[in-house]
Amino acid sequence: MEPCPTPVRPEAIVVGGSAGALNALSTLLADLPDEFTVPMVIVLHLPRRKPSVLAEVLSAKAGRPVREPQDKEPVSSSMIYVAPADYHLLIDQGRTFALSVDEPVNFSLPSIDVLFESAADVFGARLIGVLLSGASADGARGLKAIEDAGGTAIVQAPEDAAMSAMPNAAIALCEHACVLSAKEIREHLLRLAGSDRA
Fold this sequence. Notes:
The two termini are 13 Å apart. The protein has 198 residues and is α/β, with parallel strands linked by helices. It has helices at residues 21-29, 54-62, 112-123, 140-148, 165-173, 182-192, and strands at 12-17, 40-44, 66-67, 80-82, 88-91, 97-100, 127-131, 152-156, 178-180.
């Protein structure tokens, strides 16, 4: 596998997915080493108006705390954040989180595009966007915004994804996206953190 080009050390990783993405996320987050300190922010499409247990599920996989951020909370290193149900999650210029109850985007609340586009504005070339399995086009436009800002766009390979519509939409829109299996995405992200456990 040729590694994805990443000219500068990332300051944040944003991850999006929908149907079938939980398995890929489990692979990405499995037993993360302590030296993996780049903050990760995850939007997974969730059932509306139902309490989410996603943070607890992913925390068990990662072996470190995973939680939903509060409005105006700073983005902190070594943390894994998940968007709460029924809110768009954004990152503001002060590198703090913002929660929005605006209308759904791409029929989704939270929307992957909303997080990715706001993060691209803040982190620019020091951002990695990862789009996983899903049955909609949400995230493709946001991943293109990351690419246009000089960041790194990574897409789960359609043949590796449980649902290929979301990866295919991103590949069609992003000229320079790295297309990798979930296992390869994990290996690449661990290399960025200087871990020898890839």
